[in-house]
Design goal:
Blueprint lengths: L1 H26 L2 H24 L5 H25 L9 H30 L1 H18 L16 H14 L1 H17 L6 H6 L5 H24 L6 H21 L3 H29 L5 H8 L1 H20 L1 H22 L1 H4 L11 H7 L7
Helix pairs in contact: 1-3, 1-6, 1-12, 1-13, 2-3, 2-5, 3-12, 4-5, 4-9, 4-11, 6-7, 7-13, 7-14, 9-11, 10-11, 10-14, 13-14
């Protein structure tokens, strides 16, 4: 229960600030935002390390720091999504997306292992002190980054700028469908990760096997991201996105029903291989086409999917309580597979999608097509 509350304390502020963090990413100098978020994270980790080292940490400290962390992540994520494409030419965008995804996936596999070793060998406080030092170095590194200047006028209303980003997604079919599919996949499928202990208990197994499943998922996702960088889908980018989403959903669905834990491990690994390809292919399609004037706002909305993965545990847990753990895990993949079939049958804009950078929308094309969201 307490772990769930901590997750919610982090995820809800992240979602809320993802919405307006994208506006900040387009209104302010990106390096300054990255510097501030890294500095605040350094301070939070250092504070928690001191509280643990002095044995004064209390539960409310964890809730407050989780909420502040959610706010910081909600601003940091869209800023990074808006910033890193400005470092490379359009033709290198796909490679940049793959490199960024591989680094994030690698960190999700390697760093928890290193953190666990530090905690086991030197105590919990040491792990947080080392993490704080890492973010301190990140703060310093922001002074070495090139500038990405603001792309919108700060005199304009924040709400209006936000509505402009939402309006662009709503009227651009490719963005609406791909972002919607990402939201559904993370909420309904990826959420099973949050109830892995209950799922493993179905096999009468314990914490060690939960760790095995986390590792299988991480290695599978990293492999999928690396493979995505080596595959050139050309005019089949849309079908690649749909196929990868289907593999993820289908393999997790099968894994939820098998009776042998030995089979669950490869099924989860292959499923997350598909999810790694799905996430990178989706992000590539969006980053190649989003206008620079809207990059922060649009990618900020897209970044909500990372928090939906946490809240997805509520779906899996609720359905597990009503239908049993196995069908609780299976219910989400069934929904997403149905959604993929519907998209494949009705959304030609998606199935005909290619990774040709010539399709990338320029700011001029956006301005020519834009409508005033205030109706003026």
């Amino acid at each position: 229960m307490r772990l769930g509350l901590v997750a919610a304390a982090n995820a809800i502020p992240t979602i809320l600030f993802n919405l307006f963090g994208g506006v900040l990413a387009d209104r302010m100098e990106a390096r300054l935002l990255l510097r501030v978020t890294a500095l605040i994270t350094t301070a939070m980790l250092g504070t928690l390390a001191v509280l643990i080292a002095t044995n004064t940490v209390e539960l409310w400290h964890v809730y407050v720091l989780a909420a502040i962390s959610g706010i910081v992540i909600g601003i940091d994520n869209p800023t990074r999504q808006a910033y890193f494409p400005s470092l490379v030419p359009p033709k290198a965008t796909k490679s940049a997306v793959n490199l960024n995804g591989a680094m994030m996936a690698s960190a999700s596999v390697v760093m928890p292992t290193i953190g666990g070793l530090l905690i086991a060998g030197f105590g919990t406080a040491t792990g947080f002190f080392v993490a704080a030092a890492g973010y301190g170095l990140m703060t310093i590194s922001t002074w070495l980054l090139p500038a990405r200047q603001p792309v919108i006028d700060e005199a304009r209303s924040v709400l209006r700028e936000f509505r402009e980003g939402v309006s662009y997604i709503a009227r651009t079919r490719i963005f609406a469908v791909i972002i919607g599919l990402n939201f559904a996949s993370m909420l309904f499928v990826f959420g099973y990760i949050q109830i892995l202990p209950a799922f493993v208990n179905e096999f009468d197994l314990g914490d060690r096997e939960v760790g095995f499943l986390f590792s299988a998922a991480g290695v599978g996702a990293l492999s999928g991201i690396i493979a995505s960088g080596r595959i050139n889908p050309g005019r089949r980018l849309g079908w690649t996105i749909l196929l990868a989403a289907s593999v993820f959903s289908l393999l997790i669905l099968i894994a939820s029903q098998v009776t042998s834990f030995a089979l669950v491990l490869p099924l989860v690994a292959i499923g997350h291989f598909g999810n790694g390809m799905f996430m990178i292919s989706s992000m590539t399609a969006l980053q190649l086409r989003v206008p620079d004037e809207l990059r922060g706002r649009v990618m900020g909305i897209y970044a909500i999917n990372q928090s939906l993965a946490i809240l997805g545990g509520l779906w899996a847990g609720t359905m597990g309580g009503a239908l049993g753990v196995r069908w609780g895990v299976a219910s989400g993949p069934i929904i997403v597979l149905g959604l993929v079939v519907l998209i494949a049958l009705t959304q030609r804009e998606v199935t005909s999608l290619s990774d040709d950078v010539d399709e990338r929308r320029t700011g001029k094309r956006f301005r020519d097509q834009a409508v005033d969201v205030d109706g003026q």
